[in-house]
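U., I forgot to send this yesterday:
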Amino acid sequence: MTLANYINDLLYRHECVIIPNFGGFVTNKISAQLHKNKQQFYPPTKQISFNSHLKHNDGLLANYIAEVENISFDDALNSISKTITSWEQKLVSETVEIDSVGTLSLNDKKQLIFEPNTTINYLTDSFGLAAVNSSAVTRFKEKVIPIIPVEKEERKRVPAFIKYAATAAILLTVGTLGWKGYQNDLQQKQHLAKEEAALEKKIQSATFVISNPLPTINLNVSKEQPKSFHIIAGAFQFPENATKKLKQLKAKGYKASIIGKNKWGLTQVAFSSYSTRSEATNNLYRIQDTISEDAWLLIKKAM
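Result:
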């Protein structure tokens, strides 16, 4: 089993992939970018980072490995633990390469340093998109030639009486057009007022009142979000044992439920089920710390 391959697969579909007792790979979506020096446009992508504090087992990685390899959940956890041990031994003296995700190494302070592989784009929305080269845009500045002013004595003088005559002609034309425009506007407003009066009269004659109107009914409809995240308390071969476990959990105040059988024919009982991954993960950690360390998270789409 190559653990790196499963991490690589899950990063395409999830924002966080936690390796139990080791750390977690977290994705962050970044928009398209322009590299000014190379004149290249890069499509939107997922930026991968590593957080060594994310060590709690959320069940995602182990559950995926168990499903693909057709092994039990515990066997998947054992395989993960062996791979982590080999990584830790190798990190003492060299760098660990995790498939196409990136590389891990230790600095002088024995801290894990992660270098992501930037050639892989884990954003499925950008599938098939590659960097685009663009030629540089060259801008030219046109030389402006100043206008040489004309001396006052060289300008042609226009006789004063011609100026006055032109001004009077303009004023006379504007006045005539203004009076005609005023007359047309007044006639149009009168015509519209008559049409509005006639329309109002027709509306009044067609108006009627309902003496006993029907009461208004307000319906508040809320769409319930599907609960796809289940904190598993146990899986039982005999249904009566599953029913017994269900009653015990309900007596303790949990919204327990039987979510059906897995592919091995075992009846699964959940502490509770949630609509969001964050809410389920927070409650999983609380249950693991206080009730059962064997509790794990199952992601199952609602039918």
